[in-house]
Amino acid sequence: MAENATSVIIRGERTPIPSPEELQRNRIALPHLPKVHVSELCRYLAAVKREKVLATPQERRISILPEMEQLMQLEEWHHPDLAAGEPPSATETFRQLADVLATGDTALYRPSKPANTHWRNWPDAGTL
Fold first, then answer.
1. Mean pLDDT on 7-28
2. Is residue 83 pLDDT above 90, yes or no?
3. According to DSSP H, which parts of the chain are helical?
4. Are residues 22 and 72 in the same domain?
5. Are 99 and 69 in contact (CB under 8 A)?
6. pLDDT category, 126, cuts 50, 70, 90?
7. CB atoms within 10 A of CB 44
8. How many domains, the chain?
9. Which of 11-20, 64-73, 103-112, 117-126 has the lowest mean pLDDT?
10. Are 15 and 41 part of one and the same domain?
11. 101 and 71 both lie in a single domain
C-alpha cells in the first residue's frame, strides 16, 4: 500500500486503514513491517467489513440469465492448491459441484474434506 494512505473507499464509504496493531489484533501476520501489503488489508476488510466487500445478490446476478435460479451458495469449501499444480477437476469439491450443476440436485454436494478457504490456510496468498 502507499505509505501515506490513510483510508480506502468501499461502496462510497471511507474506511480508515487500520494500524498494524489493529491488524495484528485480528490475527493478521505482518511479516514486512513497517510495510503493510494490500493482501493484509484485504484480509482485515474481509473480517470486519465482509458485507461491504462481497458481491450483493444483485451483483452476483449480473451475468446470469433472469430465468436461472440459484441452486446453492457456498461460503466455504475445500479448494485445490492451484500453486502446487492441483487442478480443480481433480478435486472432490469441484467434481461434486459439476454434478450439482448438471443435475440441479444439491444433495450431490457432500464434501468429505474440511473447508480450507479461510485465508489463514493460505499464508502465502498475495505474495505469489
1. 93
2. no
3. 20-25, 38-48, 50-53, 57-60, 92-103
4. no
5. no
6. low
7. 20
8. 2
9. 117-126
10. yes
11. yes
Which pairs count as long-range contacts for 58-67, CB under 8 Å and 24+ apart, including other chains?
A: none
Cell 440441479 appears where? 104
Same domain membership, residue 127 and residue 67: yes
Taken as a whole, the chain contains a residue count of 128
- The DSSP secondary-structure symbol of 90 reads G
Distance CA 117, CA 101 (A): 21
Residue 110 CA to residue 78 CA, distance in Å, equals: 11
Domain extent for 41: 1-54
In terms of domains, do 67 and 114 share one?
yes
Asked if residues 76 and 115 have their Cβ atoms less than 8 Å apart, the reply is yes
Residues 73 and 114 in one domain: yes
Shared-domain flag, residues 78 and 124 = yes
pLDDT value at position 64? 92
